[in-house]
Amino acid sequence: MRSYCLLLLMTIFFPNLRAQVFEVNGGSSSLYDAQGGTLTAKGPSYDASLGAGIVAGKLVGGANLTKVIGRATYLAGDDYIQFVLPTDTFDTSHYVIAMGAGVKGKWGGTDVFAFAGATSNSFDSPFFEGVRAESPAGILFLRKPIGAHLAATSNMVFSNQTTAIEGLEWRPEKFLKAALAGGVGANQPYGAASFDLTRAMFDIKAAYISAGSQFHRVAVEAPLMSEPDRENVLVTFRPSSHMTLSAGRNNFLSPVGTTETEVRSSVDNVSAGLQVAGAGLTGSFYHSTFQGNSNDSMAFGAERNLFWGMHVAANYFESRPNNAPLTKSFVSNITEKMTPRLNVTEYVSRSQGQTTVSFGGEFLSNPMTVSAEYQTFYVPERNSAPFEQALIVDVRLQLFHGLTLHGASLVAPDGGLKYTADTQVTAARQGQNAPLGGQENSLVRASMGNMLLRGRVVDTEGRPVAGAALMIDDLLVYTDDDGLYYVRERKPHTHQLKVMVSQFLNGGVYRVVSAPETIRGTYDKNEPETVIVVERAAGAGS
């Protein structure tokens, strides 16, 4: 019912909103055992989505509407709420899923986030997010600056179990931060202190956390996340631009399986990196403990660019668990850049006395991206023959503007070959001609006005990035298939430019390499374009 209500609100609001970008994404995956889709709409002051599908034979769905009105942002539906404490030095990715309504903004110099509804768990798939309400909850997060360098925080969640953690953050310089936090989390005591110092030659991160054995920030069935516990420290030393040394210790409260029961675990590590004669060398040693068992491991790697666009890499791994036999493996690959759009890779691996040779490659173009490679997987469930070799293929086709088809093969934990197939359609609607936000100098992407703001978004190899999201003052614009964007205005103004990497439409995960902070319109179409360079994050999909 909540999804239908939000759909009704979206239907009412959409015709009255300008500069809309609509995206439909849907498909099927045997790996996730899911089929479904999502309708998303984006505008200069709102984001909205509605998704539904079937996961493991169950019909689930979710919806979200985020709308900016004045200085406040209003939320309705399902939302991922970031839950970060000032002492979170090592991991700032904690969040809670909730459904209901909320608001965030700044009033009286205090940053406020308030939400009322229920905590939720999620059913994830590549095409939509489904949620299910768990427990009624109220959430209130506050942050108040006290002077120039000190800030107080308060994180409270009122549900079947109570969380109330107060904190202080002291930042006298950009490179130095110290913080304290204390209270209760899910009815368990909590106290923490942290220190973070970053300099040119060294970094020091340290924290000590004293928490109840079953501490959670919020008591939920999912997602279950590890929490830092006891002493945590990481020291990184850079004696030169070619060498990096680091050593650290981390302790955690880790969930066991899919239960909320937590046990203590730890990881000690020492690592080194060296750049010499054009080659990159790395080495790491680890000692870990979990549920009474321990493991001593090591990893060594080397890589180098050779002549004619060739790249060579080799890695050696060794694991010594206290309750299982020693394992060793060696993996190497050679990648040859045949053309700017075509790479060919040869793989050689040796593990447990077996040697495997395989081949792969990647072809990139504006209308098509194809990659194929043989990979060897270790499947513990297949005790007599645990190694499974499979051809992993990933194909993405842009048939015409706004329509993308994607398919990929994957190997499941049981060794079976699975697939994912999906399609994405993007369309833009200019909307009414009223100025955005009532501002006299608002930008309108239309033929009115002689001043032109234009530019291009490319990756580090100069390839255009389609569907890149840019915020020009309060106007959200997207690049076309050639990576181009343009906006017209009547009079020249200087505008703030932000690259919204979290809202790119092509499904990739990016970081900004270079981008100007401001842009300005010009009469001359022959003026150089504004160039924004982004880089796909390591491990992100095509």
Textual characterization of the structure:
The chain is mainly β and 542 residues long. Among the domains are: 70-223 and 232-238, Porin; 442-536, Carboxypeptidase-like, regulatory domain (Immunoglobulin-like), CATH 2.60.40.1120. It has one helix at 2-13; strands at residues 20-29, 34-42, 46-55, 58-69, 72-82, 95-107, 110-124, 129-146, 150-158, 162-173, 176-185, 188-198, 202-211, 227-228, 230-240, 243-255, 262-276, 279-290, 293-305, 310-321, 327-339, 342-351, 354-364, 368-378, 387-400, 403-411, 417-429, 451-459, 469-472, 475-478, 484-489, 494-499, 510-514, 518-520, 530-536. The strands form three sheets. The protein has a 26-stranded antiparallel beta barrel. Strand 20 (310-321) and strand 21 (327-339) form a beta hairpin. The longest helix is centred in the first third of the chain and has 12 residues, at 2-13. The protein is globular and about 65 Å long.
